[in-house]
Amino acid sequence: MDITKIIRQSCKNFQPYIAGKPIETLKREMGLKNIIKLASNENPLGPSKKALEAIKKNAEKVFYYPDSNSYELKKALSKKYNLPTENIFTAAGGDEIIELVAKLFFNPEDEIIMSKYSFIRYNLVTQLMGSKSVIVEMKDGFIYDLEAIAKACNKNTKAIFITNPNNPTGTYNTKVELEKFFKKIPKNKYGVKPIVIIDEAYFEYAALIKDYPNGLNYLKENPNLIVLRTFSKIYALAGLRVGYGFASKEIVSYIERMRPTFNVNLLAQVAAIASIKDKDQVTKGQKLINQEKDFLYKEFKKLKIDYIPSVANFILIKATPLKGKDCFKALLKEGVIIRAMDEYQLPDWVRITIGLPEENKLFIKKLKKVLKK
Amino acid sequence: MDITKIIRQSCKNFQPYIAGKPIETLKREMGLKNIIKLASNENPLGPSKKALEAIKKNAEKVFYYPDSNSYELKKALSKKYNLPTENIFTAAGGDEIIELVAKLFFNPEDEIIMSKYSFIRYNLVTQLMGSKSVIVEMKDGFIYDLEAIAKACNKNTKAIFITNPNNPTGTYNTKVELEKFFKKIPKNKYGVKPIVIIDEAYFEYAALIKDYPNGLNYLKENPNLIVLRTFSKIYALAGLRVGYGFASKEIVSYIERMRPTFNVNLLAQVAAIASIKDKDQVTKGQKLINQEKDFLYKEFKKLKIDYIPSVANFILIKATPLKGKDCFKALLKEGVIIRAMDEYQLPDWVRITIGLPEENKLFIKKLKKVLKK
């Protein structure tokens, strides 16, 4: 049977996903005792102790389906953010939210604007729905060019993805820039402003910066805005898949109608609720990153390695004289997993997640070795 | 902003999902100490002890993203079913598999055949993709009419959903019926036979019956076949969301390309692997259901309550003289959650999950009370 005859046109160009191997498998295959993973922007401090307790306490209940409404989780988020539950939705990670938005809004005739060098999932979901991706160049220093994005809008623009801070560059847009942008974007042929999705997966790492805009503050004035957050990053629950978003009651009501019924699993819900109650979780994560970022910047300067200053928990660095892919492979042999940036069209760069102090020291040691510096 | 102007046409008719409340909330609101849930076909014996251990042992690792390939889980399934991993895929429950198939294959001009009184998600995903649902009547006794389904095929038929055993009726189709069906379905305008999705979520409960067909046995001869299974039912991991499927290498390769990267969460993977290794899990579940089914049938006969003989872990019963919805409400006040069948177009019927012996006894007691028998 020739499957390409019957699959949807928009799925035909999907590339096979080549995922990383589990750490245990790598250890076995490479004959290594220790492997450190600085590849996926996880919080190496691990989940809140309260979350761990909640997981263990509720493990016996996993024969039940999850609460399909994430009732208690939404209540906890509502209290934390002082926002009605009707403006909040939950999903299996930020990834699912991006796909939910696409399935709800993207028609084949729609154009979706995204920035070059930003999270690749925006392009993937746009492809999935058969819509057109419009890729806008960045400003100098790998920063989102919101003015150019506003100018790129036309009658067919259905949605705009903004990542703030941006992945994989670690850069951010300021309050002033974002406020100007909201005013500038024009209405489309449907007579409304395009949906703006601000992906704030790394919100907590940037939140201490004075001119960093909290998307939540723009919700009332912009009914076209969807803000995306996650428990995968600073809350260290990536393995459990739980994200959340803020939007108008109307948008939330439709997302609720079309999302998979049991999208947030039972242990994810209890772990997330417990994490919210543990305020130390965030401050500890912020402190680690700020301290270790200083260490890494100093080392990069000593080694004359180009890097992009980051407000998130990862740093984009230039792997010269190696290609990013070769730097990745060489470090893998040394037991350090980082991320090459070919799929982001940045073949000379690698992205490293900021780890624990001993992990970062080891990384620098191994980096020196593979770059022969 | 009038959101109906900009959402996809096929999402406009989605109904707000009104989910059940969490048991804890119901207890509080209804002033009840104990509530039993016989509503969602869960296995009340709970998960395997090995699964519980695996969850607790791996809880600290949830700051890592899940293995996006479910590498170890696929290996364990491959060994259990003696099938190459290239023929196996995993997903966040059977629900996600149904949506993956729809996103991969269903175009607006396609027709999708499903049976009346079967799992409602088939119709929902068909709506999501804007395709046409063709609903075929059942045979007497609420059994899938495979002959009528084969006859309903035309040039536009892209896929056919079969549930075996069927939810919510508990009935099944025999080997002979299924084999005839495979031969009878005609090719469509794409020059291939329609995709046949056999949903075997309740496989293990029916597996002991002599003429019940194991979908896996038909895979080689039918490259259009997708078999769906789950850890939510007899394996009692509904709360963790993990399902799996068997199909040709070609179909699996495309499902892998378009599925969400981290769709099976970290604890789901380790719990599922541990469950496979615990062979008692299945036999204990089968034994409980067979024993308790006998008890319930006898009680229904005594009470002159109509029921459909079931090969799964749930039973469809006629709530006369009450409407199903009223029976549900009356039992809820008594602390027993069952499922009314209005959304399945069966307003006179309710579906009850077979529970633990003490739960079934209590259910019969409360049923007598609300039906005044």
Keywords:
Aspartate Aminotransferase, domain 2, alpha/beta, 38% helix, homodimer, 373 residues, 3-stranded antiparallel β-sheet
Describe this protein's structure:
2 copies of one chain form a homodimer. Chain A is of the alpha/beta class. Chain A has 2 domains: 136 residues, Aspartate Aminotransferase, domain 1 (Alpha-Beta Complex), CATH 3.90.1150; 214 residues, Type I PLP-dependent aspartate aminotransferase-like (Major domain) (Aspartate Aminotransferase, domain 2), CATH 3.40.640. In chain A, 38% of the residues lie in helices and 14% in strands. In chain A, strand 5, helix 7 and strand 6 form a beta-alpha-beta unit. In chain A, helix 2 runs antiparallel to helix 10, helix 4 packs parallel to helix 5 and helix 6 packs parallel to helix 7. Chains A and B meet through helix 2, helix 4, helix 9 and helix 10 of A and helix 2, helix 4, helix 9 and helix 10 of B.
- Largest inter-chain interface? A-B, 86 and 86 residues
CATH class categorisation of the largest domain in chain A: Alpha Beta
Separation, N- and C-terminal Cα atoms of chain A: 54 Å
User: What structural class results from the helix and strand content of chain A?
Assistant: alpha/beta
How many beta-strand segments of chain A? 12
